[in-house]
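Sample entry (206 residues):
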Amino acid sequence: MLMPTLLIVTFLLLFYALFTAQNAIVHYKSAVAAERAAFNWSHAESEFATGAYEDGRYDGLYWRLTDDALLQGLFGWTADESADSLTFPGATDPGDRLTLRKLHPAVEAMAVNWRGSIRYERGGLQREIAVSAEDPGELSPLALLRGSSVASSESSAPVTEPAEWMRTFDLVRYYTGKVKREGGGAETYIGKAGSILGRKADAQSQ
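Predicted structure, serialized as tokens:
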């Protein structure tokens, strides 16, 4: 009776070790994907693993007014936050939307048999890349003990761009002063300023 019990315990420990290793791999890869996507956020053409990019290839100056939506609240524009996510496997072509193009390399870096999503989340000036991933590989003995045998992970990394933060701060400070001087016509002034910047952003994307 002792030997069968030891054998069962040994196999359970083996399965648990495999699951722990599997879970660590999922967490590591999702964390790396989030951190690299956040690190490369300032440049859509950068190489995902190193951040290097070709000289002369840059993101447009006004893309943050439209795709990024960092400044849309200042000019009364609504932001389509629901579009800034990609699922895997089988992520579709991101098209011309720059935020999705920036997320796409992170999707390609995930294992082909994993399921999950990579999202660009924003709230005010706080922005981050969030990755949800799971390996659907089944370890049935663990499912009996844990209720689930799926290794999963939730990782996130903040998008930090010191130079862009300074430009944004200066822009907000500039328009805040203008609006105060306009007095009662502040809303009209903001609308005109937003219209001008919107035309520049549209011209740049063409």
